[in-house]
Specification:
The complex is a heterodimer.
Chain A lengths: L2 H6 L1 H26 L3 H21 L3 H22 L4 H22 L8 H5 L7 H20 L1 H9 L1 H6 L4 H22 L5 H13 L5 H26 L3 H30 L5
Chain B lengths: L5 E12 L2 E12 L3 E5 L6 H8 L7 E6 L11 E4 L13 H6 L14 H13 L15 H13 L5 E5 L7 H12 L6 E5 L3 H4 L5 E6 L1 E6 L5 H8 L7 H12 L8
Parallel strand pairs in B: 3-7, 3-8, 5-6, 6-7
Antiparallel strand pairs in B: 1-2, 1-4, 8-9
The chains are: A mainly alpha, B alpha/beta.
Chain lengths: ~280, ~260
């Protein structure tokens, strides 16, 4: 099939649109996850999302909205309990991480005659995104971007120095909870694209690469969004060419580009150091 | 505000964490224009005291009045310079943006800062001599420069009260001198409360001392009193080397040479 024929297929168009929509959320929230050091927290929230998937199947509800509400509630709960027991944060994340998954698996076991491809939620299925889900993703993007821009100053301040932000009268605790819910909604969007097990890769690698060549948090968000889009499109192409699973292909693409980038950069630095003392 | 009106008034303050009491029966009175150095051992409650003054912690009992009001009521009138060691060094922000973060939480929202706000940031940076570093990222700055950027962040609201938590630690002697001169150059309209271990360099600048080690002993003037030394280092028997050392400290510190 030629490229133009391929691009004329509805499922390919949907996949590319999903990649774009996810990359927007991924860039904004990924940057915030990285600078706030919430990577482990995001991992816990991602895995708890499986409970939402199980609930949706058990109760016969639409998967994406149900999972969105469930995961948002789990993130809120996690934010509230870790606020009281800060020193126990990592333990509580572990509980939500495994507990959410177990809950989902049990509900799926109890669902009579379920035989949906569960793998698609663990590893993603960007090629089967229905139009309705695209609209939901668009709505989630709009919400994430609008809230982040509106509260940008406060978020910037609390990401840099939460203690100081509190002394300025910024409602740090409330904004932190909001951030966790936005992470949850981002993660739910990403379930379709890379699956919950691989979410972390797409949430951390793009901001990390973007951080190297930006001076501002906005720049980091834009850069991370672009990197994420590159990974998704290249990964999709690779998945088609080599006939491999799309989620894994996207994450593998991200990892390969990341490692290449790091290797080139360290080689460049070594070269620069060697030639530096010589007079020009 | 009336000259010499109390900026900080604390009476009968008690505070503790789950692990036990941190501050007991603390009284403190700081007037406008004072430059107070807070000394004391690590874990003695110095940072906790600064946090209580800002309303970031609530006392278990006792009374705290800041500008005659409850702590936390007027964040814009207080500038705070926390210990900088726990900041993320690679954070994607320029020095100017860091200074702008000192603006109080208000009605303005959105990702960009307004022209008048940036002008205030420039002015605060000029006051501490870092205006030419505005476009630099924090990792590109030396420890002393970074500390002065954080002081500029605290100064952007032109606060009447400036609280600094160990601003001189991990900074080379030249940088320390710069920071102390910057602080004294702020003039008497700014009341300063500074946690410091370095009494030598601040001796000429401070108008009073407070030793904190669960209890608090306050004195006017830059000299440690025997009661302060006892509070900070404990009571030691005569003949014990520590006693000799403390005794010598008490003998040498109050000498008039430093002040002259």
């Amino acid at each position: 099939m030629s490229l133009s024929e391929l691009l004329a297929q509805t499922f390919v168009q949907h996949a590319l649109l999903a990649a774009l929509l996810v990359s927007i959320a991924c860039g904004v929230i990924g940057a915030l996850v990285v600078v706030n050091r919430l990577v482990f927290m995001a991992g816990g929230i991602a895995h708890s999302a499986y409970g939402g998937v199980g609930l949706a199947f058990y109760a016969g509800l639409p998967v994406l909205p149900t999972t969105g509400v469930f995961t948002g509630a789990a993130a809120l709960l996690l934010g509230l309990v870790t606020r009281r027991r800060r020193e126990r944060t990592d333990t509580l994340i572990g509980v939500i991480w495994a507990g959410g998954m177990a809950f989902g698996i049990i509900l799926l076991n109890l669902t009579p005659g379920y035989n949906t491809d569960l793998m698609s939620y663990l590893f993603g299925s960007i090629l089967t995104v229905p139009a309705r889900d695209l609209w939901l993703m668009f709505g989630a993007d709009a919400l994430i971007v609008a809230l982040t821009l509106y509260y940008f100053r406060d978020i910037l301040s609390l990401s840099f120095d939460p203690d100081y932000a509190r002394s300025r009268g910024i409602p740090v605790d409330g904004l932190h909870l909001m951030l966790l819910v936005l992470v949850a909604e981002t993660v739910v969007m990403m379930l379709q694209v890379v699956g919950l097990i691989l979410v972390i890769a797409l949430l951390t690698i793009p901001p990390y690469l973007a951080e190297r060549h930006t001076r501002s948090l906005v720049g980091m968000m834009l850069g991370a969004g672009l990197w994420s889009l590159v990974f998704c499109v290249v990964g999709l192409g690779a998945a088609y060419v080599f006939d491999i699973s799309s989620g894994a292909s996207i994450v593998a693409t991200a990892c390969v580009i990341y490692l290449t980038f790091v290797a080139v950069q360290s080689a460049w630095r070594k070269l620069g150091r060697r030639s530096a003392p010589e007079p020009a | 505000m009336r000259m010499n009106a109390p900026v900080i008034e604390i009476e009968g303050l008690n505070f503790g964490y789950e692990s036990g009491p941190v501050l007991s029966d603390v009284a403190l009175r700081i007037r406008q224009g004072d430059f107070i150095a807070i000394v004391g051992p690590n874990g003695g409650g110095k940072t906790t005291l600064l946090r209580l003054i800002q309303g970031l912690l609530r006392p278990q009992s006792g009374r705290i009045r800041i500008f005659g009001k409850d702590p936390g009521d007027e964040p814009a009138r207080i500038g705070y310079v926390p210990q900088h060691s726990n900041l993320a060094p690679g954070f994607p922000a320029t020095a100017e943006e860091v200074v702008l973060m000192g603006l109080p939480h208000g009605r303005r929202h959105g990702p960009r800062f307004w022209r008048d706000e940036r002008a205030r940031a420039r002015e605060a940076m000029r006051r501490v001599g870092v205006e030419d570093l505005a476009g630099k990222r924090l990792p590109e700055l030396s420890g002393g420069q970074r500390q002065r950027v954080l002081i500029a962040r605290a100064l952007i609201t032109r606060p009447e009260l400036l609280l600094l938590d160990e601003p001189l630690s991990n900074i080379d002697p030249y940088g320390r001198q710069c920071i102390v001169e910057t602080l004294t150059g702020l003039g008497r309209e700014t009341t300063i409360v500074m946690v410091s271990h370095d009494l030598g360099i601040t001796a000429n600048a401070v108008t009073g001392l407070a030793a904190v080690n669960r209890y608090l002993v306050q004195t006017g003037g830059p000299q440690l009193t025997p009661a302060m030394l006892e509070l900070m280092y404990g009571v030691h028997e005569a003949g014990c080397p520590v006693y000799e050392h403390i005794h010598n400290l008490a003998e040498t510190l109050p000498s008039g040479e430093v002040r002259a």
